[in-house]
């Protein structure tokens, strides 16, 4: 009985300690990458605003498990991607997974119509709950999502500049 009591108290103390340390981490995680593309903003924007054109530059969009519902919504495995706002310089989309994790993606195009250089900045923002496992796992977002963003932006650059 004493051993069970010690184990239970130890578990509670470790959980509270992990929670306290996790609360020191930010509740909003932002991962951002940018790239320069030698093309007009209008040309780049054509590839970014329509999900049907994402299969040319977003890794995994050619996969059979991806179902394009229309130009602004797609189902990528257990994640739904929906473009919620488009302006002349930004495309904002929601990425919602089946376990209710929601990320907001924003693609910004910086440059003017006279220039033949466009800066494309892509960011993901996620609100993280107080749970210690979510706070600690958010530390890996930059490495995991950031690597994918770099890869996809390089593919976008290659696709647009080859036109």
List the helices and strands and how they pair.
Blueprint: H1 2-22, E1 28-37, H2 41-48, E2 66-70, E3 73-76, E4 79-86, E5 90-97, E6 102-110, E7 118-127, H3 132-137, H4 141-161
Written overview of the protein:
The structure is a single chain. The longest helix is centred in the N-terminal third of the chain and has 21 residues, at 2-22. The protein is built from 4 helices and 7 strands, in the order αβαββββββαα. The protein is of the alpha+beta class. A hairpin with a 2-residue loop joins strand 3 and strand 4 (79-86). The protein has a single domain (26-161), classed as START domain (Alpha-D-Glucose-1,6-Bisphosphate, Chain A, domain 4, 2-Layer Sandwich). The termini are far apart. It has helices at residues 2-22, 41-48, 132-137, 141-161; strands spanning 28-37, 66-70, 73-76, 79-86, 90-97, 102-110, 118-127. The chain has a 7-stranded antiparallel beta sheet with strand order 1-7-6-5-4-3-2, covered by helices on one side.
Biggest sheet strand line-up: 1-7-6-5-4-3-2
Could you please say which CATH topology applies here?
Answer: Alpha-D-Glucose-1,6-Bisphosphate, Chain A, domain 4
Percent of residues in beta strands: 25-35%
The number of domains? 1
Structural class label? alpha+beta
CATH superfamily: START domain
Parts with pLDDT < 50 across at least 5 consecutive residues: none
**Element-by-element helix/strand order:** HEHEEEEEEHH
Helix content: 25-40%
Gyration radius over CA: 20 Å
Tell me, what's the shape? Answer: elongated
Major sheet details = 7 strands, antiparallel
The CATH class is identified as Alpha Beta
Mean pLDDT: 84
Count of discrete alpha- or pi-helical segments spanning 4 or more residues: 4
N-to-C terminal Cα separation, in Å? 73 Å
What is the β-strand count? 7
